[in-house]
Amino acid sequence: MMNKKVLYMDWKKMGMTSTLKKKEAQQKMKEWREQDRKVANEHVMNRQFQFVCKVTEDMPEYMKTNLKNMPNNKGYIWKGIQYFGHLSAPVGSNPDQWTLFEKRPGGEMLIHHIHYGQSKKIFRKRPQHPQELIQHIVY
């Protein structure tokens, strides 16, 4: 009878060791995944930064000069990236409102009036046509 108890204890010990090894392996896998995510996130951030730099180089000069003289509640959308003016907003203006201009092919311009957290209005302005409301989104 003594032998059976010892065998049972040995089996229990082995089970504990394999459980510990399994936990250690899971912990290592978790650490590797976290490390891979960090590397992947750094890679994604570098790619996005390179994209922003490339798009900024392609921006027309008149937009760059206008941004230097524009308040920071106005700006442009160029190739999907929002650029805001360099000057401070006028005194008394609402800091939750801003306007962005987006040039489109054919002389068309989209004007985005954004009231942060409340609504967004998009107007279309075509040459020799009045400004028209395209979309009104209420949050």
Q: Tell me what portion of residues adopts beta-strand conformation.
A: 25-35%
| Domains, number | 2
Flag low-confidence runs: none
Number of helices: 2
**Average pLDDT rating:** 86
Helix content: 40-55%
Query: Which structural class matches the secondary elements?
Result: alpha+beta
Topology, number of strands: 6
Which sheet architecture does the biggest sheet show?
6 strands, mixed
In quaternary terms, these chains amount to single chain
* Radius of gyration based on Cα positions: 30 Å
Strand order of the biggest β-sheet: 2-1-3-4-5-6
Helix-strand pattern, N to C?
Answer: HHEEEEEE
* Terminal residue distance: 75 Å
Q: Which geometry do the CA atoms define? A: elongated
What are its keywords?
elongated, 139 residues, alpha+beta, 47% helix, 2 helices
What does the model show?
It is built from 2 helices and 6 strands; from the N terminus they run H-H-E-E-E-E-E-E. It is α+β, with helices and mostly antiparallel strands. It folds into 2 domains: 58 residues; 79 residues, no CATH class. A 6-stranded mixed sheet has the order 2-1-3-4-5-6, with helices on one face. A hairpin with a 2-residue loop joins strand 1 and strand 2. It starts with a helix and ends with a strand. The model has no long low-confidence stretch (mean pLDDT 86).
Quick summary:
The chain has 139 residues and is of the alpha+beta class. The chain has helices at residues 2-58, 61-68, and strands at 74-78, 81-84, 97-103, 109-115, 119-125, 132-138.
Give the helices and strands, then pairings.
Layout: H1 2-58, H2 61-68, E1 74-78, E2 81-84, E3 97-103, E4 109-115, E5 119-125, E6 132-138
Parallel strand pairs: 1-3
Antiparallel strand pairs: 1-2, 3-4, 4-5, 5-6
